[in-house]
Design brief:
The protein is an alpha+beta fold. The chain has helices at 58-64, 68-71, 77-88, 98-111, 123-130, 139-146, 156-173, 176-187, 229-236, 244-252, 264-278, 285-291, 325-339, 357-360, 374-385, 428-436, 445-456; strands spanning 6-14, 24-33, 42-49, 92-95, 120-122, 209-214, 220-226, 255-260, 293-298, 301-306, 319-322, 399-404, 411-417, 420-425, 463-464. The radius of gyration is 32 Å and the shape is elongated. The structure holds zinc ion (ZN).
Length: 474
């Protein structure tokens, strides 16, 4: 049965479809309590007509069979509100088109100045997820398709029983794992590794930052970043899109630590710094970053400069960045074809003399056979490479970028020079130290790419240091 200790199938009849304006005329609840997986669930049914205190439109009376006369002596919602709350207490709220029923209840409680909330599972979404190709997911379609025994359609208890019958039928006809996975996905409920505390996800903020997964010792297993820490960490443990890394992490993780940052850029920078210094066992990003680099042209010949060997000052005269030497060569090959450049001169062919492979296909203007001068080839190469050129750094020295959190409580000031990161300051003292004695710049492919992208979109509001302090930066 559903992977919860208690759940309730709920159906409402109403005077219309607008939760703010229309009123409830009937409530039906089928509550299911599962004391243990081995014992049969305890099922409690409850239904009542509700006096909406407004007339019911004739069309609705015809559809539901609930007339003004029937609800005339019924209790109002305020009378039954405590009973409804206790029936639903601790339950997953399950309804067909759940947003409708849940919305009506929320508004009905709000009119009493009481709040109502529950985790909601919609059986329309469940049906769609399990039978994406089926025709129709309305209650009548489900009843017909699954051959459900029902009575009292369009009455609250009758419809609540029908969706309870639908769920029971699912568990009779399909593998439990398949249904559980669909339910979890709909509830966005991660199946947490059992060794983590149950509130491990809820304890995380829904803000940008970095997270660190630990196993049994003080070395992190994995470090990641997100603009929404809670959602990202939960995604690691959601059942359906588990990667091999996530499976390993699920087995080894014992605790989660996190650090908030003001924004996305701060999270990216902090992740990069932490991965370099803590060397987590399962981060492939580490190797990926080491593989990255840029291209320089030395005496007319392109060469790859890996991340560790990049001289910050030369970065603005380089091309790229590229995620690897292989990626750089692929880009060069494409340029060679498009611009009739010599693949031997570009270092894309191993050794040998005579016409390059491109020349043999009549796709090289002939540096390799002496028909084009080195100077001419160089000039054409530079022209071809122009779109890949890393632009000049727009400031004379250090540029500061201020990032403020959505709630305004947190400000990070990031310092950059030549498209490289120098550090991040969180107060004026830190900022002054950072600007007075800037550390060696750290080349990080992702950071440089992000800066260049924002620069190209004119969305990089850098301020020259040291003029700007935290409070005066724009
Ligand atoms: Zn050639």
């Amino acid at each position: 049965m559903l992977p919860f200790p208690a759940f309730a199938f709920v159906d409402l009849e109403t005077t219309g479809t607008r939760a703010e304006a229309d009123r409830i005329t009937e409530i039906g609840i089928v509550r299911v309590d599962c004391a243990s997986p081995s014992s049969p669930p305890a099922v409690t049914e409850w239904a009542t007509l509700v006096d909406p205190q407004v007339p019911i439109p004739p069309a609705i009376q015809a559809l539901t069979g609930i007339t003004d006369a029937m609800v005339a002596g019924a209790p109002t919602f305020s009378t039954i509100a405590p009973r409804v709350a206790s029936m639903l207490d601790g339950c997953i709220f399950i309804a067909h088109n759940a947003r409708f029923d849940y919305g009506f209840l929320k508004h009905a409680y709000a009119r009493l100045e009481r709040s109502f909330s529950a985790r909601v599972l919609c059986t329309v979404r469940l049906s769609r997820r399990l039978d994406p190709d089926a025709q129709g997911h309305g209650l009548d379609a489900l009843i017909a398709r699954h051959g459900l025994d029902t009575s009292d359609r369009h009455r609250a208890l009758g419809d609540a029983r029908a969706i309870w019958a639908f769920v029971q039928r699912l568990y009779r006809d399909r593998p439990r794992d398949e249904i559980d996975a669909a339910v979890r996905r709909i509830l966005k409920m991660p199946s947490l590794p059992p060794q983590l505390p149950p509130d491990a996800i809820d304890a995380l903020p829904e803000t940008p930052g970095v997270y660190l997964f630990y196993g049994d010792n003080s070395l992190p297993l994995y470090i990641g970043k997100s603009v929404d820490l809670r959602q990202r960490v939960a995604a690691h443990f959601s059942q359906d899109w588990k990667s091999e890394t996530d499976l390993r992490l699920s087995r080894e993780i014992r605790r989660i630590e996190h650090e908030r940052t003001a924004g996305e850029l701060g999270a990216l920078l902090r992740e990069s710094e932490l991965i370099k210094s803590r060397m987590p066992a399962h981060n492939r990003a580490l190797r990926r970053k080491a593989d990255a680099g840029v291209m320089e042209i030395a005496e007319g010949v392109p060469r790859f400069v890996a991340a560790a060997g990049i001289d910050e000052a030369r970065l603005p005269d380089s091309y790229g960045p590229f995620s690897s030497k292989t990626a750089m060569r692929a880009a060069l090959r494409k340029l060679a074809t498009g611009h009739r450049l010599c693949t031997r001169r570009l270092g894309l062919e191993r050794g040998g003399d005579g016409p390059c492979f491109a020349r043999q296909l009549r796709r090289c203007d002939g540096w390799c056979v002496g028909e084009e001068s080195a100077a001419s080839h160089h000039a054409r190469l530079e022209a071809a490479l122009a779109p890949l050129a890393i632009p000049r750094w727009p400031l004379a020295g250090i540029g500061l970028l201020r990032e403020r959190s959505a709630d305004g409580e947190r400000v990070d000031v990031h310092a950059f020079r030549n498209w490289s990161w120098l550090g991040t300051a969180r107060d004026d003292g830190e900022l002054a130290r950072l600007c007075e004695t800037p550390p060696r710049a750290q080349f990080d492919l992702d950071v440089t790419r992000l800066l260049l992208r924002r620069h190209a979109a004119a969305a990089l509001p850098l301020v020259a240091a040291p003029r700007a302090a935290i409070d005066s930066a724009p």
